[in-house]
Amino acid sequence: MKHFYNIYNASAGSGKTFNLVKEYLKILLTDPQIDSYKRILSITFTNKAVNEMKSRIIDSLNQLTKITINDKNNPLLNSIKKETGLTNLEIQSKSISILKSILINYASFNISTIDKFTQKIIRNFAYEIKIPVNYEVEIKTKDLLEESTAKLISRAGVDKKLTKTLINFSFEKSANDKSWDIEYDLNNISKLLLNENHFEQISAIECKNLEDFEKLKKLIDDKKIKTESKIVNEATNCLNLIYSKGLNDSDFLSQALPKHLKKVKSKNFNALYSSQLESNVKSGYLYKKTLAEDKKSIIDLIKDELYVIFTSLKKKIFKFKFYENIQSNNRPLSILKHINSELEIIKKEKNIILISEFNKIVNNQIKNQPALFVYEKIGVKYKHFFIDEFQDTSKLQWTNLVPLIENSLSSEDSSLSISGDIKQAIYRWRGGEPEQLLKLCNNNTDFFTKSKVINLETNYRSKDEIIKFNNSFFYHISQFVFTSEVHKKIYKNCQQEYNNNLGGYVGVNILENLDSNAKKENAYNLKIQQIVEDSLKNNFELRDICILVRTNDQGVKISDFLNKKDINIISSETLLISKSEDVEFIIAILKFCSQPKLMNSKLNIINYLHRKKNLKKSKHNFIKELIKKPKKDFFEELHKLNLHFDYNILTKSSLYEAIEYIIFAFKLSKKSNNYIQFFLDFAFDYSNKNFANILDFIDHYESKKDTLSIVAPDESDAVQIMTIHKSKGLEFPVVIYAYADIDIYKEKDAKEWYPVSRDEYNGFNNLLLNFNKDFEFFEDIGNSIYKTHLMNLELDNINLLYVALTRAQNELHIICSNSCNNKGEENLKKYSGMFINYLKSNNLWEENKETFEFGQKIKKDFARKILNTSIIDEFIINPKEVHDINIDAKSAKIWGTSIEEATNNGNLLHEIMSKIKSKQDLDKVLNDFYDDGIISTNLKENYRQTIFEILDHEKLRNLYNPDLKSYNEKDIILKNSNPIRADRIVFTSDKEICIIDYKTGKLKKEDYDQLSNYEVVLSSMGYKVKDKIIINTANKLEVIKI
Questions:
Q1: Which of 458, 475, 944, 997 has its CA 20 to 30 A from that of 8?
Q2: pLDDT tens digit string along 861-877?
Q3: Is residue 778 pLDDT above 60, yes or no?
Q4: Distance between CA atoms of residues 258 and 218, nearest Å
Q5: How is 661-718 classified by DSSP, letter by letter?
Q6: In what order do the strands lie in the sheet with 965-972?
């Protein structure tokens, strides 16, 4: 049995994947069984990394199947032979068997994201957790939280206690010169519900109700009043002490101390300790040398007392600020439980689980379960574990894995391989805890086995000049940027070895610090354009270039600018299918066909057609011609453009076929179109999981469209734009890092939990505070939290910079603004200041110079390898006009509000009424029709109102009595003619009946004659017809007795 597990300390570009693949293959090749991969669990953090790992293993096995006996030029083969003692022939033979087994049992090839593995556990524990096995996973949590908040606010006026809390919160905001609108604050605090960093504290207050928070508020209010009174009295007494000694304000240096005390006395506690005053009071430097000697002596006599009072006041003032801080979060925190209740209702209604809840659900379920039971539930026991990107593993994720890993490591022939790099830990904000990696490296763990740290020190990604720059730059800033000695040591020791890949270029571009955001944005865009164009001149292709940004907003601005310059780009924005005008056109057609009165949809159709058809006619005249035409005439008018679209065909189609028909009729895409194909797949998936009502599908699309992205084609020749976070694990020949001006201490809406005494704070043991500079003075606990918070900010933001600067292979371009003040001093809190400081330390800084270069740009001397593949460029669809298969007309009922056009005679009301015997059947029948995709949510409500009005009508109520015998849509077979079918026959007694007929249009003579015919037939059968009733719902409800 091994007495250690491997930890690969893998800096950027250091061949981590190669080593993981090698270890994986060693297990496969040395295990007697050919299916040992079934007992290996390999976990990473992105789907891209999963696919890469799987591809590398399959490709490597494939290569090993082709080796010869004397093959010696394969680095992977040589390493495996050296570490396993296997021969070429043994490796080749075993690789053939393993590869065949994997391809046959690919589902058991257990390489997945941590979220997917967690989901596997959840699905297998669905019964114990009491969740439906067919739940959906929801990634887009922001919208759900906002929906929950909106629903909660809408309850104002219904729940009295909640209403009072909401109103008080609004008043408090207004009193503090803030907007009375509380929705932003509630949306902001609701994020805590789904943030792993806050789960423990949120769980602790779940038992608290509004009354508990109200009592806490009153308690804090009382403490504030008492503390404020003490502050004012102490400041007053100090001023009295000064004046009682015959001293004046002017006797003190710049009158600073008396001014300070007067400000405190007036209850203005802002910006009191940002000057030199505290240092002067402490040292006794309180007056000018020119002050009269007698007054100097007086001040010297009381200076120690003044310092005692000054420090006492400071302590009390920050206590007061502490109480204020508590109050600022009390109201929204008290409502958090109610937001969560609304969220739970929404989740249940939509049958979803949020991806951010996975780790919490699993932790609650398996923490007390034996590992063997968990293995039994998931159907396999893993012997070997691979965990990639461990620095981004959250505390809960690791806690959930530990029992399984411990159980496996206690047996023979098991292993654990971990790879990570604390310098690339950039996900603390979503629960990542890089300190876990440090603990494992230092053997600070509960495992009885020890870790063996393997340092991968060679950078195989970048050219020498880039490695040299990064080694030197990060060593330099490590000497002043970190408060923590541990963090300082990490970066001082991060020197990577070169890979004999000579050359490379780094350009540090320091732009003028412009005062206008618009001017600054333009300067960045122009510099980016210049770098892109220069790269093209050096034989690089657009696809070789990646622009990195910190925020999506920055990416959008750059994207818009480059688009206008006719430079092809790919970004998270451009990959959204909602950015495809073809997809938006399809949606517009669906909307217009199902809701013809929607003028926006019609206008979108007209604009699209004018643009796509390159019409000579002005857009204004084209819109004028079509905008007021009814639907039928509108589509007939399009025949002039050689667009033959038949609405009747559409209404007889399923959702998927309807979209195919639109593509076919409007000739949307003859060539391959990733956006349309993705949209078709999306519609197909929705149809399989739901009864595909058009209006509900449109609503579903609108709610999801901001997350629906195509995968960028590998061979797209376009500049990529992405955030630094999304670039992690990737590499590019040319990297442009724009807006490198981040202030490492700047953050938005930061909060920290502050531990307090339950006895002193009404049963609360943690209180939520806004993190700011005051935190440092909230006693020793606050000071400790403050220092830790700053240390984390330092590490996380320098890590972000490290990730950005280590993506480049050939060229790295950094663009930032000059952060020097009027004295020429750089701001060392900003990336830009760090770059300037580095340049100064190397005697390279010139104030008026813009670009500082390391290495040289050289022309790209290799051509991109083009795969010899045939590309199918035709967009293949198979509409029913081509395959000539008729669809049941019932599918037309998906077309919502146009139901009378979609069915022959508006018979849907008849169908629904045929299922209803009495009022008790109403909701069930409507739900069945909705579930079958026949009616939309809106139609369901419309029909409910109409039918309820029928069932509850004073002339009809007794005829829908469940105790009466009745027949709906029942055929009456006649001896010498065709059968007749009355809509409803009600037996008021054994031989007395009432005939009901439903109509949905203008009544004609034939309608009255029809009822008379029914009466004749039924009378001939021995029944007395008491009443003949027509129920007409054409406009308003009419009940006509004949």
A1: 475
A2: 755 554 444 444 555 56
A3: yes
A4: 34
A5: HHHHHTT--SB--HHHHHHHHHHHHHHHHS---HHHHHHHHHHHGGG-BPPPPTT--S
A6: 965-972, 980-987, 992-999, 1024-1032, 1038-1041
Give the span between the Cα atoms of 712 and 733, in whole angstroms: 17
**Mean pLDDT throughout 278-288?**
94
Upper half-sphere CA count for residue 509 (Cβ side, 13 Å): 19
The encoded tokens of residue 73 equal 């030029």
Q: Look at strands 980-987 and 992-999 and give their pairing.
A: antiparallel
Question: Which strands, in side-by-side order, build the sheet including 40-44?
Answer: 111-113, 40-44, 384-387, 415-420, 4-10, 450-456
**Dihedral, CA atoms, 92, 97, 98, 101, nearest 10 degrees?**
160
Tell me how far apart the alpha carbons of residues 988 and 964 are, in angstroms, rounded to a whole number.
7
Q: In what order do the strands lie in the sheet with 719-723?
A: 569-571, 719-723, 545-549, 732-737, 808-817, 505-511, 851-855
For residue 185, what is the enclosing H or E element?
helix 183-190
CA distance 117 to 134: 17
For 499, residues 6+ apart whose C-beta sits below 8 A from its C-beta are 458, 459, 460, 464, 467
Instruction: Please write the tens of the pLDDT for every residue from 706-736.
Output: 888 887 766 678 999 999 999 998 999 999 9
pTM of the complete model beyond 0.85: no
pLDDT in tens, 245-260: 999 999 999 999 999 9
Nearest-angstrom CA–CA distance, 764 and 759: 8
CA-CA-CA-CA dihedral for 853, 855, 856, 862, to nearest 10: -130
Flag whether pLDDT at 4 surpasses 80.
Answer: no
Q: pLDDT digit string (tens) for 359-389? A: 888 888 777 778 888 887 777 889 999 999 9
Average pLDDT over residues 592-599: 84
Tell me the β-bridge partners of 980. 972
Token reading at 988: 């008021």
* Contact (CB, 8 A) for 736 and 786: no
Round to whole Å and give the CA distance between 493 and 486: 11
Q: What is the DSSP string of 1006-1041?
A: HHHHHHHHHHHHHHHTT-EEEEEEEEE-SSS-EEEE
The CA dihedral of 217, 221, 224, 228, to the nearest 10 degrees, is 160
Note whether 936 and 694 are within 8 A (CB). yes
What is the SS3 assignment for 343?
Answer: helix
pLDDT of residue 883: 52
| Four-CA torsion 168, 172, 173, 175, nearest 10 degrees | 140
Q: Higher confidence at residue 928 or residue 188?
A: 188
Distance CA 290, CA 271 (A): 29
Q: What is the DSSP letter of 394?
A: B
What tokens does 710 get?
A: 């195509």
Nearest to residue 86, comparing CAs of 454, 95, 8, 53? Answer: 95
The sign of the torsion formed by the CA atoms of 637, 640, 642, 644 equals: positive
Per-range mean pLDDT, top range of 577-581, 859-863, 878-882, 973-977: 577-581
pLDDT at 584: 93
Segment 751-761, tens digit of pLDDT: 999 999 999 99
- For residue 648, the surrounding DSSP H or E stretch is helix 647-651
Percent of the chain with pLDDT over 70: 92
pLDDT of residue 507: 97
Q: Is 768 exposed, middle or buried (0-12, 13-18, 19+ CB in 10 A)?
A: buried
Is residue 459 within 8 Å of 498, Cβ to Cβ?
Answer: yes
Contact (CB, 8 A) for 623 and 608:
no
The helix/strand/coil state of 847 is: coil
Contacts of 487 (CB under 8 A, 6+ apart): 478, 791, 794, 795, 798
